[in-house]
Amino acid sequence: MSCSELKLGDLEIAVLEDIWHAGQGEARGVHARVGAVRGNSLQTIQSTLERLHRKGLLARERVSHAFVYTPTGSREAVLARLIEESLSRFSSGQEGGLMAAFAGYASQADPSLLDELEALIEHHKRRIGGDPS
């Protein structure tokens, strides 16, 4: 992924989700699965795939007469980058408030997410402390 700030539009996110789900894709297939449903032309999908390639989110390889695109990173890695960029714009050295806001959001979305969040935090604490379990 490129080091510049990552900004993604709704269509870019839909195309990325499709590629992550399928593992790879070419413009015609992505258009059939995403573009046609949304009313986008094949050219719009091709442009979107090219933008995602330039942003470093998709790799491509020419196969016959078409490019086949594959993700360069996981969905989780892209989400982490988006969250990190958003948090850094608002943090102003007050990370505690941001963490409280995130925990509040998680509990409103689904209280069981707090349990998942707690387990993930413990997992990361162990990794930082050198415990591989």
From TrEMBL:
The keyword Translocase does not apply. InterPro entries: BlaI_family, WH-like_DNA-bd_sf, WH_DNA-bd_sf. Keywords: DNA-binding, Transcription, Transcription regulation. It comes from the Bacteria. Belongs to the BlaI transcriptional regulatory family. This is Penicillinase repressor. It comes from Glycocaulis albus.
